[in-house]
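Methods: example folding runs. The two proteins below were folded one after another, and each record is reproduced exactly as written to the output file, sequence line first and structure-token line second.
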Amino acid sequence: MCRCVRPRRALVRAACAVRTCALRPQPGTRRLEAIQESGSPVIEIRELTKRFGPKLAVDSLSFDVRPGMVTGFLGPNGAGKSTTMRMVIGLDRPTAGTAIVNGRPYAQHPDPLHQVGALLEAKAVHTSRTARNHLRVLAATHGIPTSRVDEMIDLVGLSDVASKRAGGFSLGMGQRLGIASALLGDPSVLVLDEPVNGLDPEGVRWVRDLLKYKASQGCTVFVSSHLMSEMAVTADHVIVIGRGRLLADCPTSELIRSASSNRVSVRTPDAGRLQTALAGPDVTVTVTAPDVLEVDGLASARIGEIALAERIVLHELVPQQASLEEAFMEMTADTVEFHAAAGSTSAGPTQEPSSV
């Protein structure tokens, strides 16, 4: 059982805070498109390399992260995501290459909290400090008023535990405090490593809405996650790495489309006649149920046109699209460092030991 249980009224306040954000004036479509198409990356990674002794964690990595969109940073465990993010905000020194944020290395910014909001480790908080005091200490370094501290505490839903020591926080509460720290300086760039780790479904949705809102305001949002289903509905663009090397840098929809087959599922009460009508030298039609056909070699639009010409009723016409998880697994299959034993769901013996 968690040591601190956040009351429901705090949940409601946090949800309302995000909804309130969504009601604030947002940039027009033209302005947001201008931000996205300006051609000016905010985070610039060039030939970034990091070695820990004999271990090559990041290998000549180069990519850009642009404003006005959520960029997902994906890769298996050990791929180098966290190390890359640490180099972006100056916590690790590159062995070679550069990481530039807003035109200069992070450490050279005179007001870093106003430039970049970072969450790399939710529990990186002095355990004896309260949530409010932790934020007040950060605020004092940049002359940020206490009113901003209170605003962030309310935004992330920690008002009822703001006077409690952070050492007693659950993982999810620690994540909320970390997000509040990242937002404290109202930065134009967010760098978040697994921000939904430990959050309940309400918290996951809250973070998703928050990231989308910040991106809609022209912020640069760079976020890593192992939750592919969440990235599929949150990230506009994805950067995929494996063993420290770049594997993909493209819109999320493009990555999914590249892994999708040209297969269409069709449900019709006249499956036999449609199968005959669709037959062709480069078309394969498989009957998977009395009223369901799987068609390879024809686009859904063409199948619909043929059915219309033959006056065949269609109940369903569904292109079989891969999920982001399937696309990710296919792309990173050869770069996974840690594999579970195949065919085993238990680490223990399958039978009770005999008594002696």
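Second run, written to the same file directly after the first:
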Amino acid sequence: MKKLAIFLLLNLFLSNMFAQQSADTLKTKTNLKIATQVIPDRTDRNNNFYDNEETYVLPMQELIITGEIENPGKVDFSKLTKRSVIVKEALLKHDTSNQFIGAYRYDGYSLFDILNDRILKKKNATDFRPIIDLFVEIENNRGEKVLLSWGEIYYPNFLHNVIIATEVMRIVPSKTKDLWPLPTESKLIVGQDLISERNISSPVKITIISYDRSYKVNRDINPLVSAQVNVYSGENKIDSFSSIPGSLQSETLHTIFYGKGRGIHSTQPFSGVYLKEYLAGKIKFNQKNLRTGLVVCAGIDGYRSVYTFSEIMNRSDQAEIMLVPCPEEKDGGKFRIFPSCDFFSDRAVKALSEIRFENK
């Protein structure tokens, strides 16, 4: 018993010593409150790399939801479950290079949950009922705005990856002990972004919007084939193609192709080129386009889906959107869009006739 007591006292002493050393190492010029309900594991008692440091509370702003919904109003965070996202943040530097900011675990409330009980009231529902042309505009208390497609929130293979962060923890390298700068306000975190330009601070307003360009819907086209794809930037036609440029590398992605309505379509792989490789050089990769750029893919029958520029051009997960040639297809040829990032196939446009980029 005496040996056990000595062992326990020694263990407690060492734990306190390591904790004090870590606290001294992590001293920072901040007035942020420490989240006392989250106890850091500074002696690696478990296998979790993402609980080793202090968690800091980020002051929240009131968040309002408005737009094309029947029940606009303030978000009641007390009813929501907290989620965690781990990210390596970097920002553009002069639109030509990247500047690493730091690695963090953010805790907060996912947009999936925040928007879950909002009843959609699409302005264009009479002409186009599918919800794949929806996007959300998120604004902060400084007037900065970013866009997210509805697909990024509700269709991805991995849910709850976009959150309003209310707490933050540095992910500190065990050898270098680099102390990444701490944010000081609540923050939108888009976990799948490689460059973190959409991670704006203090979001206060979310607006749900349907894409407002009109397309003629014709479901009686037979055969459903579009021989050419026209490409626009705003109202300006910048390209058209009837075959995939030979300079682009062909890729093959294996998939289970599953629709929200009709279930399983196929288990066959898709071969084509990454849409980001085709658009690179045609559309500038800059802060404005990453934050508020949309890319709309439309079929000859009027079916269309909305993507953000960032989700096509700026992914950290390599779950790419693919441009697929299918010249032999009589039901959906000559080109298709395949989003490998999505669980459902609904944003996969067939008989592709138009790709249009614009800033909102």
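Comment on the second run: Residues 325 and 335 are 4 Å apart (CA to CA).
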